[in-house]
Amino acid sequence: MDKQKAYLAGLLALASGIVASGGAAATGIETVWECWYDGSASVLCRLLTAPSPIGEATAESTVSWLVPTNGRTRRPLPALVHVISQDPAQLASRTVRIPLHNYAHNMEAVEQLADAVMCGGRGDCRVQFERG
Which of 5, 23, 28, 64 pairs with 106 at a CA distance of 20 to 30 A? Predict the structure, then answer.
């Protein structure tokens, strides 16, 4: 169990740092995600609202599969991390899966993880976590 807690804490710290370093344009429109635990080993999230990208409307992501490296880890990040923080509107009709690598027992920690991955430290973003 300690291994799982350490993994979740590390993932939470990484996600917070990554997402907090980026952010959508300040348009006054809040980004809202609806997330839920799927009963297995994943949290699923769908976008409810997001600001439109300024100056462009793309149906498909033009982000390369690897974005610049994280300054702390020096490892390339998946393009999805960049899209979530910079242009979440691209994910309007998709479901984002956050793997837990185990069954959830502490739902408060799962909610924190969902918030860290989808919003990080951004003040213009929030997660509505559905328990059920």
Answer: 23
Through-space distance between the first and last CA atoms of the chain, rounded to whole angstroms = 24
Residue in the block written with tokens 């393009």: 79
pLDDT at 57: 46
- Where b means 16+ CB within 10 Å and e means fewer, 62-92 reads ebeeebeeeeeeeeebeebbbbbbbbbbbbe
Distance CA 85, CA 78 (A): 12
Burial of 37 from C-beta contacts in 10 A (0-12 / 13-18 / 19+): buried
**DSSP string computed for 109-123:** HHHHHHHHHHTTT-T
> In which band, very low, low, confident or very high, does the pLDDT at 55 lie, cut at 50, 70 and 90?
low
